[in-house]
Amino acid sequence: MSVKGSGSATKGANRTNPDLRRADPSSAAAARPENIRNVVLIGRSGAGKTMLLESLLYASGVVTRMGSIVEGTTVSDSEATAIHQQRSIGLSAAPLAFDDIKVNLLDTPGYADFMGELRAGLRAADAALFVVSAVEGFDAGTTSLWNECERVGMPRAVVISRLDHPRANYDAVLAECRGAFGDSVLPLHLPMRKDDTVSGLLGLLSGSVSEYTAGDPRPAVRPATKEELASSDGIRGELIEGIISESEDETLMERYLGGEEVPLETLVEDLETAIVRGTFFPVLASSSATGVGTAELLEVLTRAFPAPTERNLPTVTDLSGTEAAPLTCDPDGPLLGEVVRTTVDPFLGRVCLVRLFSGTLREDSAVHVGGHGLAERGHPDHDSDERITHLYSPLGSSLRPVPFAVAGDICALAKVASAETGDTVSAREAPLLVETWDMPEPLMPVAIEAASHGDEDALSKSLAKVAAGDPTLRVERNAETHQLVLWCMGEAHSEAVLDRLREQGVKLQTVDVITPLRETFATRATGHGRYVKQSGGHGQYAICDIEVEPLDRGAGFEFVDRIVGGVIPGTYVVSVEKGVRAQMNKGVRAGFPVVDIRVSLVGGKTHSVDSSDAAFQAAGALALREAAAAGSIQLLEPISAVAVLVADDHVGAVMSDLSSRRGRVTGTTSVGGEITEISAEVPEQELLRYAIVLRGLTAGSGRFRREYLRHEPLPPGIAVAAKA
């Protein structure tokens, strides 16, 4: 906030240290929850979150020089895929110490495909820092996340970044933020320019100017000139009135409007209270390249953002699902933590990033690890007892050993064999479960297969490891098509998953996703099944005649015995039905199951010695195949009921696109907030990449859900992937 008029508390980096990263300087500040701040960085891809984190780590002495996204040397982006794509793809934690406060910074991906990682960051944090580029502004996805934080009352601040860019427009982006986020979004500083570059900040409350020298995170502070103060009178008055309106002192506004000077200490105290309460949202300015705004931002993070003790804990139950007694963020309370990210290290095995809500976790502790509520995502409920042998403070991918971690802190555990993202860590003698956070549904299928038979086992093992750390990934072995399908959030997510598998030495390839079609008879047909074999001893003899007719959609299968005179005994009639059913499961034309038909057994012959159950099953299957060859077979495709949530501005484009996908719009409903829900029936084949298309049509803000509805005839000329 720079209300003290001094930047002396900012600790500069030790530039004589040859190592890029130091030992953990924040460990001493983590003895009590009151001295911890957990802050998640949120913003669109390219907003500058990763480099802002780098500048904060550099300013606080955690690193001796800032990393580079291009060179792949940033603290938070260490995965090979993230370095290659030059964007964050996973949640990363980096602690720093400032004024005896430990700040756990959580860098999150800005791309919509990695929404699960961002939601994990929101779960682990107590406050959010929205990073908005002074060049591109923000997107609809950022607004959606702001509203999500609003619903849960999470304290927020806005950082307008990249002030050093030639096309940076601080005033325009500030106005954009206020228009989207509300009137309670107000700046604490104004950028000061020198030679067409931002060289410092004018503190609107302190009336001082912080002047930065490139490369030095410690600003020189001087009083603002009369001209500088005069130029900021309007926005300063608006800021003061905004703070006073949040004050619990109801007389303060009247006194201020009456001309009374409000003490700076009173304004600062009311400001900090309003930020923690989540009703006032300060705007800060920064440039990671020049260091402008770093000291002011560190001051807001440590002084204005809430400690874990000031936030409510998630709902907790015992293993039976009974709600447990409310817990507080108490180091002496029952142990309770949650795994917010899981990665696989080639030497340490599974490494879990854990947010502790209650209790104290120490090395050599016996704990219970439980995961419930994600069975639909391919993560069956599981419980196990583990022993914590390694406890770390994480700095990106680097792990620094620590003897303990207290409630409110974020730590890393290694070699916890059963832990998955979303699991609860609690005391072995008193196991608990934390209510799972809301995770987006993966809606883009990617079919994969091992490059060779010898790679199948490696693929299975590696896929289990990757899925354990990614609750937004759903792994499915389709019972109808027999394909191994990865349900992903989008193209970038699927690329990251495949890269992680290949990094573990798995040889695989992607194949076309097969839509699970059905076959049916379009016309009546007859079939003759003759299965006669004689090869010495008992042979095989079975002859049957059937009639097949189509039924209404969804009617299923009917088998009718119309045998007259007992030419086929009842035991063999059952055998014919078995054979017909088996052939229906295999398909008669394209290899897809046959549905909605009536099969009538009308005739046949038996042999007193050579007829058998197996022979009549074979004859029944042959008869159905012959009927299919003589009749007309129709393919049926699955139709999904789709609900699309879009901003009103995009309704026309989305409806037009649905129509082009052979979809039928069945209705629209306004759900408030200038959002419309479009209901439609769309062929499943047209939805294979719809997650990507919808994102492009709606600037990343559109969401949809789908549910199987029925099968309908596939129009002629529509190509589909064939079943092997």
UniProtKB/TrEMBL annotation:
Q: Specify the domain of life of the species encoding this protein.
A: Bacteria
Domain Tr-type G per the UniProt entry, residue ranges: 34-309
Composition bias of kind Polar residues appears in 1-17
Record keywords: GTP-binding, Nucleotide-binding
Report the Pfam families cross-referenced here.
EFG_C, EFG_III, EFG_IV, GTP_EFTU, GTP_EFTU_D2
Q: Note whether Cell division occurs among the keywords.
A: no
Q: Where is this region: Disordered?
A: 1-30
Gene3D superfamilies noted in UniProt: 3.30.230.10, 3.30.70.240, Elongation Factor G (Translational Gtpase), domain 3, P-loop containing nucleotide triphosphate hydrolases, Translation factors
Query: Cross-referenced NCBIfam families, in alphabetical order?
Result: PRK12740.1-1, PRK12740.1-5, small_GTP
Its recorded name reads Elongation factor G-like protein EF-G2
Q: Which organism does this sequence originate in? A: Arthrobacter methylotrophus
